[in-house]
Amino acid sequence: MTQLFYSLFKPTQANLKDEVLSGLTVALALVPEAVAFSLIAGVSPLIGLYTAFIIGLITSILGGRPGMISGATGAIAVVVVALVVSHGVEYLFAAVVLMGLIQIAVGLLKLGKLIRLVPHPVMFGFVNGLAIVIGMAQFEQFKFTTPEGTSQWMSGSPLYLMIGLVALTMAIIKFFPKLTTAVPSALVAILTLSAIVILGGIDTRTVGDLASISGGLPEFHIPMVPLNWETFMVILPYSAIMAGVGLIESLLTLTLIDEITETRGHGNKECVAQGVANLTTGFFGGMGGCAMIGQSLINVNAGGRNRISGIVASVGLLIFILFLSSYIEMIPMAALVGLMFMVAIGTFEWASLKVFRKVPFHDVLVMVTVTLVTVFLHNLALAVLIGVIISALVFAWQNAKMIRTRKHVDENGVKHYEVFGPLFFASAMTFGQKFDPINDPDEIIIDFAESRIVDHSGIDAIHKVTERYHKLGKTVYIRHLNSSSRVLLNKAEKIINVNYTDDDPSFKIVLDEKLTN
């Protein structure tokens, strides 16, 4: 058993020191994020912290992408705030349980591979938009609340002090690796800024100013909601959206970490792990979560490549809550703001700006659209969905224009139509316009050697063409259909009757009784 445990968690690309230190760095960065997302969702800060611990621990152990960090996220918080306001926090817990079940089902049904349908421009737009969102979110720390309860920007000495501390943090993170890589530069920056602020008695905002993070162990809690159909219908829309948002963000983050580490994660395994994590956190009073791209990048950049770093991050967060809350609350927010600014800068795909004039216009349009939707609506799932839809429509339009025919009449007076390009819903009308039933001879052959039938619209297009010839007493033969097209036509034999040529060894002649009588 000991050997099995060691083989599961032993570092393969990084040593144990790097894994532990990167995990501690992530744990420190998780605190303000979890607190902030809890406040967005309208729940207690401890709920967000417990969520980050439970989801982070379970996905680190069971997930399909070692080194990826999961926890409470803003994408989920934005979705659940309406449910909390309208029905209360207990309905939130029930919705998170259902969310977990949906995600487990997606993983078991092997639907995680659908992430392959996300085009590269959508990935660029998603990453760039998320980088901008991460950066913009940090500017909230440059504001303060007046006694009247309004929020105003800092000015004067507090502003200059905040800017100076943030700049110092970013400088340490940027240049410390040039001295040594033995310790993560982000951790050095946090400890250095904390020492300067505490020992120097500098008056600046700290983690404790957000909320207290002191608490006990999370307790098992069955959601106190009526177990009836009405409750199910209340939570189902929220659960479905949370499950979708969570899986999209997790799988896209997995893909990004794959590219950075040049390894390959397992999407379906990650879906199941996310589901188990959310199912568990729902029974321990959690708000639901998913993969966190910012913390994942912090972990990877600090040397975390294996499950140990994620386990250390989640367990470290729990230790902070139980024993070290008073010390963690003394960490200046400027250090964490500087860290997140560096994450935003590192997340942004600067190379994407260089390809604007080198790629098709529609790819640039998709990239910019996804970025803008992510930035202004903060809805990652919607942004990705819009990007995929635009890409799919562009693909369909381009392929619709590719359908064409080459015509000739052989020595027997039979006219041949050689079809090029896929026959599907977007090209069906153009396909029908290629034929001239009135002026064509009594027999024609449609050759699909360079084409294929993709969908029902393609079948219907062939049916309409053969019907037009049939009304004129003429015969249409089909030649060189591939296997997938043949299957489609065979399934549609009740609504279409076609003739195959006898010189194609792949097919038998199918006689149309109406034409032979």
TrEMBL record:
Compartments (UniProt record): Membrane
Main location group: membrane
Membrane topology listed for this record: Multi-pass membrane protein
PROSITE patterns: STAS
Residue ranges crossing the lipid bilayer per the database entry: 67-85, 91-109, 121-139, 159-176, 183-202, 235-257, 308-328, 334-352, 364-397
A GO term from the CC aspect: membrane
Keywords: Membrane, Transmembrane, Transmembrane helix
Segments forming domain STAS: 412-487
Protein name per Swiss-Prot or TrEMBL: SulP family inorganic anion transporter
Species: Arthrospiribacter ruber
